[in-house]
C-alpha cells in the first residue's frame, strides 16, 4: 500500500515538473488550440489511470475487498464528479483574475502553484473524511446534508465573489506589506530592504482558499461513491491537475454553460441522498457512473442548445497587463 502511494506521488510530481518546466517553461498566453490539446492530454491521463487502478486491485497492490472492476468504476465515477464540479470553480477563478487584472501570461503560474497547494490540502481532507466515515456512522448523514445544502446554494443565488471584502486579503495585508504593482511573475519582491508580497501572491491565496471551499463539496461527493482513500485521492488529484488547461478553454465561454449548475446540483443531490440512504440503498457502481455521466452530458448539451445570455466573465486572453490593481 505505501509503495502505491509513493509511486503515485512520484508520478504526480513528474507531471507537475513537465507541466511547469517543459510545456509552460515560458510565461505566455495559452491559445485555444494549445489549451484544448493540453486538456485532452490531462483527460487522457486521468482516464487511462483507471487501467492502473484495475491492475493495482487485480494484483493485490492494494489491500481491499473491492473487485478490480468495481474499483475501476468507482475511480472513473469519482474522476467524473470532480471534473464536473471543477467546471463551477472555473467561473470563480475567472472573477478573481478579472478583479486583480492578473496578466494573462501569468495566470497559468498562479493556477500551477494553487493546485500544488491543493494537493496537500485535499490529501489531509480526504484522509480526515475517510477516518470520520469509518469511525462514526452518523457522518454519512452529515456529509449527505452538506451536499444537499450545497446543491440548494448552487441553484439559488449562488456564491458571489467580492475579493475586496474577503477576509483572506485582510489577513495577508496585516501579515506582510503588499505592493500595488505587478513585478513580472514574482510572488515576492524586496523593496527598500523589506520583503513585500505582490498582487500575484494575493491572487494565489484567493485561488487556494477558493479551492479549499470547493473541496468541501467535491470530497464528500466522491466519498459518497467510495471510501477507499487511494481511489478518492487519485481521482480527485488527477481531475484537479487538468483544471489549469480546462480554465483557459472554458473561462472565455463560461456564459454558454448557464444550465450546467442545475446538472451539478442534481449530481450533488444524487450523491447526498445515496449517502443518507447508505444503510438501505446500495445501487450498483455502474448506476452511479451512468447517472452522473448522463446528468453532466445533458446539462452541457442543453446549455449549448439554448441561446446564451449577453454578460460573461472576462476572457483571460483579453486582460491587459496593468501597472496597478484595485483595492488591495
TrEMBL record:
<feature type="transmembrane region" description="Helical">
    <location>
        <begin position="262"/>
        <end position="280"/>
    </location>
</feature>
<feature type="transmembrane region" description="Helical">
    <location>
        <begin position="229"/>
        <end position="250"/>
    </location>
</feature>
<keyword id="KW-0472">Membrane</keyword>
<comment type="similarity">
    <text>Belongs to the TerC family.</text>
</comment>
<feature type="transmembrane region" description="Helical">
    <location>
        <begin position="35"/>
        <end position="57"/>
    </location>
</feature>
<dbReference type="GO" id="GO:0016020">
    <property type="term" value="C:membrane"/>
</dbReference>
<dbReference type="Pfam" id="PF03741">
    <property type="entry name" value="TerC"/>
</dbReference>
<feature type="transmembrane region" description="Helical">
    <location>
        <begin position="6"/>
        <end position="23"/>
    </location>
</feature>
<dbReference type="InterPro" id="IPR022369">
    <property type="entry name" value="Integral_membrane_TerC_rswitch"/>
</dbReference>
<keyword id="KW-0812">Transmembrane</keyword>
<feature type="compositionally biased region" description="Basic and acidic residues">
    <location>
        <begin position="315"/>
        <end position="328"/>
    </location>
</feature>
<dbReference type="InterPro" id="IPR005496">
    <property type="entry name" value="Integral_membrane_TerC"/>
</dbReference>
<feature type="transmembrane region" description="Helical">
    <location>
        <begin position="138"/>
        <end position="155"/>
    </location>
</feature>
<feature type="transmembrane region" description="Helical">
    <location>
        <begin position="77"/>
        <end position="99"/>
    </location>
</feature>
<feature type="transmembrane region" description="Helical">
    <location>
        <begin position="286"/>
        <end position="305"/>
    </location>
</feature>
<feature type="transmembrane region" description="Helical">
    <location>
        <begin position="111"/>
        <end position="132"/>
    </location>
</feature>
<feature type="region of interest" description="Disordered">
    <location>
        <begin position="309"/>
        <end position="328"/>
    </location>
</feature>
<keyword id="KW-1133">Transmembrane helix</keyword>
<protein>
    <recommendedName>
        <fullName>Tellurium resistance protein TerC</fullName>
    </recommendedName>
</protein>
